[in-house]
Write the structure tokens for this entry.
Amino acid sequence: MKILVIEDDPKTGDYLKKGLRESGYGVDLARTGTEGLRMALGEAYDLVVLDVSLPGIDGWQIMPALREKGDVRVLFLTARDQLSDRIRGLELGADDYLVKPFSFTELVLRIRTLLRRGPAREADVYDIAGLHLDVLRRRVTREGAEIALTNKEFLLLHLLVKRQGEALSRTLIASEVWNMNFDSDTNVVDVAIKRLRAKVDKPFATPLVHTVRNVGYAFGEPPSEGGD
């Protein structure tokens, strides 16, 4: 897999180039927006790590050209941390948005996730059985009623919704939502599910979050393996 990093800060750029190469990727580094766009359009890359504030042309201007090129993945890595910036980046067509300062481990996990997805981009809005989930605005309603979720509850619901119908193990959920593996005797996933159900299911007639015996949890119709 080949990655292009477009980053003008020398220290950050060198750090990303070295770290991503050590993680097994082929990496090219561009230090200006102009150079980065030229390289992105002239070479075949699987993913572009793109800063917003760049000399020459900025990341906002580069993004439309990358989308015209085709299905190259784009991850914004920037100090621009306002919600409006994140929305703008994703609306321009980026596949992910990570704010500096960042965890390198999290960056690699996000890159791996993006490169596993294939050509199709993840949906930004989901409407399922009266539940509306807006990923960009981090807004959830059901039957028109606003549902206030914590950050982890939102990530958990998003995971369940985007993989609706699948039986997800506690180990997978812990890895995806908390970015780490938990000991088998840790009940953090079960506790989080209980809190999520209290907000998403309890006030409504039809439950959407189901327990799959000996596996974990699923969203939507109960899987054929059996549930509660």
